[in-house]
Design a protein that fits this description.
Number of strands of chain B: 6
Strand order of the largest sheet of chain B: 1-2
Largest interface: A-B, 52 and 48 residues
Largest sheet of chain B: 2 strands, antiparallel
CATH superfamily of chain A: Cytochrome Bc1 Complex, Chain C
Helix content of chain B: 40-55%
CATH architecture of the largest domain in chain B: Orthogonal Bundle
Oligomer: heterodimer
Structural class of chain B: mainly alpha
Distance between the termini of chain A: 44 Å
Order of helices and strands of chain A: HHEHHHHHHHEHHHHHHHHH
Order of helices and strands of chain B: HHHEEHHHEEEEHH
Strand order of the largest sheet of chain A: 1-2
CATH topology of chain A: Cytochrome Bc1 Complex, Chain C
Number of domains of chain A: 1
Distance between the termini of chain B: 19 Å
Strand content of chain B: 5-15%
CATH topology of the largest domain in chain B: Cytochrome Bc1 Complex, Chain D, domain 2
Number of domains of chain B: 2
Shape of chain B: globular
Structural class of chain A: mainly alpha
Number of helices of chain B: 8
Chain lengths: 433, 255
C-alpha cells in the first residue's frame, strides 16, 4: 500500500492549519475548502468599495430565493391552459404558505431586475467594463438577456389576461423578421395560436433558464476573480496595502445590505404584494377579449417604449421590423460598451464631463419607462422618440467622442493613498512587504 | 453619486405611480372608503363578512359565481362547522359516477366548491342578455381600486345619467363602470337584505358585500398582515445588529 498522500506538497492550495484530517483528505483530492478560502475568505478586495458594490452579491442571493420559491411553486402549479389559472389560485388559498411563496416569487422578479439594473448602472458609472474586465461585462449582459427571457416566460405562466396577451404581442414581434419570422413564431407557439403547447414549453423553459443563468454567473465570478473587483476610484490595486480580505469585511457589509434589502422587500411582499400587478392578470386568459391596454412588466417598459417609438419606415423597411431591431439593439448595444467608451479612465469621479452626462442615460430610460406605460399618442410618442434617439446617441456618439476630448482629472497614486492619505499608504506598503 | 441616484429613483417612482393611476379609461377612479382591513394592522371583521356573505347569497349569487370558494372556507369568517354544513346542504351538486356509472344529485358538503348560478358561460350569457356576469371571487384583485371599485359600482354608480348620455338598450348607466354602459341592473335596493331582522341600507349592503368579496379574493390577508409585522420587526432588529457588527469589524482597519 502506498503511503498516505503527502498533503504538505500542495501547500499552495491546502487550507491553513486548523483543519482536521478528513478535511485535508478531501481537500487534497477535491480542493473545495481551499477554493472557498481562496475565493470567499482571503480573496483580496479593494478597501474602498462603497455600498453600490453590494448589489452583485445581492443579485446572487435573490436568484437563489427565486429558484427555491420557484421550484416549490412548480410542485403545485399545472402548466395546462385549462388548469393553470386555477392551480395558481389553489396555491394562493389551499397550499400552506402558498400565498407567501408566490408573493415572494412574483415580487422577487421585480426586485431581481431592480438590483441588476443598479448593478449595471454602477458598472457604467465606475467604468467596470474597461480593460481587463470586458468579458466580465459581456457575461453580465448575457445574464441580463437570459433574465429578460426567463421573466417574460414566467409572466405567462399564471395564464391571466395579461399573461396571454403579453405572450401574443411579444412572440408576434418575431414575425417582423423577414423569411424566417413566421416559422419562428410557429415554433415558439407550438402551433398557429398562443395556446396550451405555448404554455407547456414556456413552463419548461422557465424552469430551465435559471439554471443556465447560474452557470453564466459562475463564469461571471471566474472572470471577476481573475482581476478582482473594480473600485470607486477605478485604479488598479498596487499591493496588499490597497486590499482587505473579503471575509469578514465584505461578508459583514453584504450581510448588512442584505438585511436592509430584505426589510424593504418584506414590506412589499406583506403589505403591497399586488402593487406592481396589472389587475387584468387576475382575469383568466380569454383569447376573444383583448384588454384595453397591454403593458409589459415595469422592467421591460423602456424596451417596449423604444419598440413603439419607431412609427416610420426607412428605405421601405416596415416600422414594425425597425422597432424590433431598435428594441433588440438597445439590449445588444451593451455588449459593445467596453469598446464604445474610449476614455482611458474608468471611474466617472475623474471624468469631469462624463460625471454629469452619465445621468442623462438613466433619465432617458426612466422617461422611456413612463412612455411604455402610457398609450402611444400625442406627446407620449414624441418623448419616446427623443429618449430613444438620446439612448442611441449616448452609446454611439457621446461615449466614443467624449473619451477622446475630455480631459480627466489626475488619478490618485494608489487606493491606499487616496483612502488613508499618502503617508499612511507608504507605511502600509512598507508593512505589506 | 448617492444623492443624485436618490433623486433619479424618486423621479422614477413618481412616474411609475402617475402611470399606474392614469392607466384606466374614462370612468373616474372610485372614491376611497374606509375598510377594517386597510393598513399594516388591518384585519377582517367577521360580522361584516357574514353580512356581506348574506348580501352575496341573497342578491349577487343570482347571476355571479364565486368560483374559487369552497363552503369550508366560510369557517374562516366565523361560521361553525355545523353552520357551514347547514349552508352547504341547501345547495345541490352533481356527483358521481356511482357504482352503476350514473351521475347523481346530492346536497353539497363543506368540501364542495360553492356552485355558481349557471352550468356554463353560454347559459350565463343566454340568461343575461348576452352579458357574462364575472366571477366575483377575484373581483377585488381584478379591478383597479379593489373593494372601492365594488362599492362604487353597486353603491354609488347607478345615478341619473348626465344630459346627452345615449343609452344602449339592455344596459344601465353606471358612473364608475368603464364606458358607463353596464348590463347589470342596479342590484341593491333599500331593505333588499335584512341584517338581524333590520332592513339594510344600500351603502351598508354595498360596504359589507365589498368587504366580503375582498375576503373572497384574499382570504389570507389577516395572516399576511400578522406574519408581516413579525417579519418586519425581526428584520428591523437584524438591520441594527448587522449594522453594529459591520461598524465594529470595520473599526479594526483604517478605511
Amino acid at each position: 500500500m502506498a503511503a498516505p498522500p503527502p498533503e504538505a506538497h500542495s501547500a499552495a492550495r491546502t487550507p491553513a492549519t486548523g483543519y482536521g484530517r478528513l478535511t485535508r483528505w478531501i481537500d487534497y483530492r477535491l480542493p473545495f475548502i481551499a477554493s472557498m478560502e481562496h475565493h470567499f475568505t482571503d480573496y483580496p478586495t479593494p478597501v474602498n468599495l462603497n455600498y453600490w458594490w453590494n448589489f452583485g452579491s445581492l443579485a446572487g442571493i435573490i436568484l437563489v430565493i427565486m429558484i427555491v420559491t420557484g421550484v416549490t411553486l412548480a410542485m403545485y402549479y399545472t402548466p395546462d391552459a385549462s388548469l393553470a389559472f386555477d392551480s395558481v389560485q389553489r396555491i394562493m388559498r389551499d397550499v400552506n404558505y402558498g400565498w407567501l411563496i408566490r408573493y415572494i416569487h412574483m415580487n422577487g422578479a421585480s426586485a431581481f431586475f431592480l438590483i441588476v439594473y443598479i448593478h449595471l448602472f454602477r458598472g457604467l458609472y465606475y467604468g467596470s467594463y474597461k480593460y481587463p474586465r470586458e468579458l466580465l461585462w459581456i457575461l453580465g449582459v448575457i445574464i441580463l438577456l437570459l433574465m429578460i427571457a426567463t421573466a417574460f416566460m414566467g409572466y405567462v405562466l399564471p395564464w391571466g389576461q395579461m399573461s396571454y396577451w403579453a405572450a401574443t404581442v411579444i412572440t408576434n414581434l418575431f414575425s417582423a423578421i423577414p423569411v424566417i419570422g413566421h416559422p419562428i413564431v410557429t415554433l415558439l407557439w407550438g402551433g398557429y395560436v398562443v395556446g396550451d403547447p405555448t404554455l407547456h414549453r414556456f413552463f419548461a423553459l422557465h424552469y430551465l433558464l435559471p439554471f443556465i443563468i447560474v452557470a453564466v454567473i459562475g463564469l461571471h465570478l471566474i472572470a471577476l476573480h481573475q482581476h478582482g473587483s473594480n473600485n470607486p476610484l477605478g485604479i488598479d490595486k498596487r499591493g496588499p496595502q490597497d486590499t482587505i480580505p473579503f471575509h469578514p469585511y465584505y461578508t459583514i457589509k453584504d450581510m448588512f445590505g442584505l438585511m436592509v434589502f430584505l426589510l424593504l422587500f418584506a414590506l412589499v411582499v406583506f403589505y403591497i404584494p399586488n402593487y406592481l400587478v396589472e389587475p387584468d392578470n387576475y382575469i383568466p386568459a380569454n383569447s376573444l377579449q383583448t384588454p384595453p391596454h397591454i403593458v409589459p412588466e415595469w422592467y421591460l417598459l423602456p424596451f417596449y417604449a423604444i419598440l413603439r417609438s419607431i412609427t416610420f419606415t426607412i428605405f421601405g423597411i416596415p416600422a414594425k421590423l425597425l422597432g424590433v431591431c431598435a428594441a433588440l439593439g438597445a439590449m445588444l448595444i451593451l455588449f459593445f460598451v467596453p469598446w464604445l467608451d474610449t476614455s482611458p479612465v474608468r471611474s466617472a469621479r475623474f471624468r469631469p464631463v462624463y460625471k454629469w452626462v452619465y445621468w442623462l442615460l438613466p433619465i432617458s430610460l426612466i422617461a422611456l419607462g413612463w412612455v411604455g406605460a402610457h398609450e402611444p399618442k400625442g406627446i407620449v410618442v414624441i418623448i419616446g422618440q427623443i429618449a430613444t434617439a438620446y439612448f442611441y446617441f449616448h452609446f454611439l456618439i457621446l461615449l466614443p467622442v467624449l473619451g477622446k476630448f475630455e480631459r480627466p482629472r489626475p488619478l490618485p497614486i494608489s487606493i491606499a493613498a487616496a483612502v488613508l492619505g499618502p503617508r499612511a499608504a507608504v507605511a502600509g506598503a512598507a508593512e505589506g512587504q | 453619486m448617492l444623492k443624485a441616484a436618490a433623486a433619479a429613483l424618486a423621479a422614477a417612482l413618481a412616474l411609475v405611480v402617475a402611470g399606474a393611476a392614469e392607466a384606466q379609461e374614462e370612468a373616474p377612479p372610485p372614491p376611497h372608503q374606509t375598510w377594517s382591513f386597510d393598513g399594516v394592522f388591518g384585519t377582517y371583521n367577521e360580522a361584516t363578512l357574514q353580512r356581506g356573505f348574506a348580501v352575496y347569497q341573497q342578491v349577487c349569487s343570482a347571476c355571479h359565481p364565486v368560483t374559487h370558494l369552497y363552503f369550508r372556507d366560510l369557517e374562516k369568517i366565523g361560521y361553525t362547522e355545523d353552520e357551514v354544513k347547514g349552508i352547504a346542504a341547501k345547495y345541490t351538486v352533481t356527483a358521481g359516477p356511482n357504482k352503476e356509472g350514473q351521475m347523481f344529485k346530492r346536497p353539497a358538503r363543506p368540501a364542495d366548491h360553492i356552485p355558481g348560478p349557471f352550468p356554463n358561460d353560454e347559459a350565463a350569457r343566454a340568461a343575461n342578455n348576452g352579458g357574462l356576469p364575472p366571477d366575483l371571487s377575484l373581483i377585488t384583485l381584478a379591478r383597479d381600486g379593489g373593494p372601492d371599485y365594488v362599492y362604487a359600482i353597486v353603491g354609488l354608480g347607478f345615478t341619473k345619467p348626465p344630459p346627452g348620455f345615449k343609452p344602449i338598450p339592455g344596459t344601465y348607466y353606471n358612473q364608475y363602470f368603464a364606458g358607463n354602459h353596464i348590463k347589470m341592473p342596479p342590484p341593491l335596493h333599500p331593505g333588499a337584505v335584512k341584517f338581524d331582522g333590520q332592513p339594510a341600507s344600500v351603502p351598508q349592503m354595498a360596504h359589507d358585500v365589498a368587504a366580503f368579496l375582498n375576503w373572497a379574493a384574499e382570504p389570507n390577508l389577516d395572516e399576511r398582515h400578522q406574519t408581516g409585522a413579525k417579519v418586519v420587526l425581526f428584520l428591523v432588529v437584524a438591520v441594527i445588529v448587522f449594522y453594529a457588527a459591520k461598524r465594529r469589524i470595520w473599526s479594526r482597519i483604517p478605511h
